[in-house]
Design a protein that fits this description.
This protein is an alpha/beta fold and about 500 residues long. It contains 15 helices and 19 strands. Among the domains are: about 160 residues, FAD/NAD(P)-binding domain, CATH 3.50.50.60; about 110 residues.
Length: about 500
């Protein structure tokens, strides 16, 4: 008789976990409280527009391909994707526009042309962030820090010997200022802290490995958009025998004699399982699903990441100056980060991210139109007046776009939807509406994420952006990969 496993939540890490465990021969059931899979990866169709509503910058596509390969299938039979020739377009208040080309030689020349920094400085920076990634990849990103024997491997020994090279005692900003002098270049690379909801003036320079993934390894876009990743993984999981139960909330993870024995389903009853994997925010896993089990306070009570205010706009006009990924920078980024992380509000002059899949996927918008996902970083929910802050954010965003792109964008908005820290908290069960779980605003943050297994409860595992190794599509997929190695 096959062993059984329940997966709580169908975010990207939950889907990857279900596939990996099904490939081991387990019977796997996925429970999802919403009526759709994907967690924070969502899509919306409205008035002829399609929007990817969650994560938008996709790196390391091989982590998705690997899920098909371990099942003996070809990923290209399921979906296709292509690298973006321009990863980002960066806009500054003085009119400077920097094209973040995927080709490193071209990107370096662009920086030399548009700033006072040299291509040589950029080349040295690229090598530095690659070295940081190489040191941390097999020690931290793809393996558990919470298994004693892992500290006695050759890779760990090499990592310890090269520890100084990861700059864990410098901030991202300090490291970027070591390589660059132009405020524009520094602001551009400091911005990568926002990929994990953190502040570059306090987050450790080790986090500059994020830049390596994007700058050196590239960004990609599936032919049918980001949400198509969810669709194909659900299809693959189904072919592997995984069963999905939507609109089905888990009330409790059942534990007897320090071992998992099943789950309690709301309005249904109890179901026995040999193993349970939680893709739920680790905070709520303990607070809601493990009554009587003491939560690891040092981990649970850490500072949480930032959140976001997002506008989904159907724009009835094409904008040739924009690419798939675009960033309109604040004039004073230090003031912006201070507003978010110290004063717990939004800046009057926010940096604005604009994601437009219709630049590549024409059917995502009607002819001559574009689908804009417009995002600004916001603090997590501390009881602020979000109605007022969203109103303020919308006005500031409209004004900034009009000023920097020389277009009265508001009169071209024919569809609008909004996401806020409160909707993120309620719809995704993310504590305080934090998009990325714990923040990385500490040199020790990487070591204080929850492990991918329970040290107290046999058969209980954790995956997703709120646990090791962190947030973002690549890290969530790696959390499932690490869990797979630990799964017994």
């Amino acid at each position: 008789m096959k062993k059984t496993c329940a997966v709580i939540g169908s975010g990207i890490a939950g889907l990857a976990s279900a596939i990996r465990i099904a490939a081991k021969g387990y019977e796997v059931d996925v429970y999802e409280k919403n009526n759709y899979p994907g967690g924070k990866i969502r899509e919306q169709h409205a008035k002829g527009y399609r929007f990817d509503m969650g994560p938008s910058v996709w790196m390391l596509p091989e982590l998705v391909d690997e899920l098909f390969e371990i099942c003996g299938k070809s990923p290209r039979d399921y979906f296709k994707y292509a690298p973006l020739e321009t990863t980002f377009k960066y806009f500054f208040e003085d009119g400077t526009v920097i094209n973040g080309y995927a080709n490193g030689e071209l990107f370096g020349k662009e920086i030399e042309l548009k700033t006072t920094d040299s291509k040589g400085a950029f080349d040295k920076y690229r090598k530095d962030i690659e070295a940081k990634y190489d040191i941390t990849k097999e020690v931290f990103i793809e393996n558990s820090l919470h298994v004693f024997k892992n500290y006695f491997t050759r890779k760990m020994f090499t990592g310890v010997l090269n520890f100084r090279k990861i700059d864990s005692f410098k901030t991202m900003d300090e490291s970027n200022r070591f390589f660059f002098k132009d405020p524009k270049t520094i602001q551009l690379f400091n911005n990568y802290a926002t990929y994990v909801g953190s502040n570059p003036f306090t987050a450790p320079a080790t986090m500059n490995v994020i830049q390596h993934l994007e700058i050196n390894l590239g960004t990609y876009l599936p032919d049918l958009g980001i949400y198509s990743i969810v669709n194909v993984l659900v299809k693959l999981a189904g072919e592997m025998g995984v069963k999905f139960f939507y609109e089905t909330a888990i009330e409790e993870i059942l534990v007897e004699q320090n071992a998992v024995v099943g789950v309690k389903i709301k309005n249904t009853g109890s179901v026995k399982y040999d193993r349970v994997i939680s893709n739920m925010d680790v905070y709520f896993t303990y607070k809601k699903l493990l009554p009587g089990i003491a939560a690891p306070k040092q981990i649970i009570d850490q500072q949480k990441s930032s959140s976001m205010i997002g506008f989904y706009w159907g724009i009835n006009k094409a904008h040739e100056s924009l690419s798939v990924h675009n960033m309109l920078f604040a004039a004073d980024d230090r003031q912006e980060y201070d507003a978010i992380y110290e004063r717990k509000t939004i800046s009057d002059d926010p940096s604005i991210y604009i994601f437009i899949t219709s630049k590549q996927i024409k059917k995502d918008a009607p002819d001559g139109c574009e689908n804009w996902f417009v995002l600004i970083t916001a603090p997590n929910d501390q009881g602020q007046n979000w109605d007022e802050l969203v109103k303020k954010a919308r006005k500031n965003t409209i004004d900034k776009i009009a000023r920097m792109l020389h277009t009265d964008i508001e009169r071209h908005v024919e569809f609008e939807d909004v996401i806020t820290p409160v909707t993120i908290k309620n719809d995704y069960a993310s504590h305080l509406g934090a998009v990325y779980g714990n923040s990385s605003n500490s040199k020790y943050a990487a070591f204080l994420r929850h492990p991918n297994f329970s040290k107290k409860i046999k058969g209980l595992y954790f995956v997703g952006g709120s646990v090791h190794p962190g947030a973002g599509l690549p890290m969530c997929l790696n959390s499932a990969k690490i869990m797979d190695k630990l799964f017994t």
